[in-house]
Amino acid sequence: MFASGGISSIGDRYVGRGDIAGWDFEKEDFTTDYTWREFDLSGIVPVGAKYVVLYTYIVGSNPQWSVAFGENGNSNDVTVFKSVTQVDTAVVCDEGIVKLDADRKIQYKIWNAAWTTIGVAVKGWII
After folding, report:
1. Is residue 8 part of a domain?
2. Which residues, in sequence order, are bridge partners of residue 30?
3. pLDDT, tens digit (0-9, with 9 covering 90-100), for 35-71
4. Domain region containing 67
5. Residue 1 maps to a domain
6. Are 37 and 96 in contact (CB under 8 A)?
7. pLDDT tens-digit profile of 81-118?
8. SS3 103
9. How far is residue 7's CA from residue 12's CA, in Å, rounded to a whole number?
10. How many domains does the structure of the chain reveal?
11. Residues near 124 by Cβ (< 8 Å), separated by ≥ 6?
12. Which of 10, 13, 75, 83 places its Cα 20 to 30 Å from the Cα of 62?
């Protein structure tokens, strides 16, 4: 049912963080230069997690700006979790799953722009 690299075994299980009080990361926590950058989640995600479930909330002043998260070390945008602004100043909320490396890191790439808002929450993980 899942493609190569996907959630593959019946034993995998989702662990939610519960009622999160605020964003784990905001626009000031990111470098917005449209370059892949390492993103360390080891302070939130426990050892043994295979995937992270992210929730994003973005607002930009132009359409087609993007915030992307992908498996650490990959260089293409095809199989990443990406949020894209649709129209000026509209709120875009998305949820996606990203594969973690052994050190619980992923990577991100954010459009080089003057963002109004970027909020990212770790909703949970898959072990």
Report:
1. no
2. none
3. 999 999 999 999 999 999 999 999 999 999 999 999 9
4. 22-126
5. no
6. no
7. 999 999 888 999 999 999 999 999 999 999 998 899 99
8. coil
9. 7
10. 1
11. 14, 15, 16, 17, 52, 53
12. 75
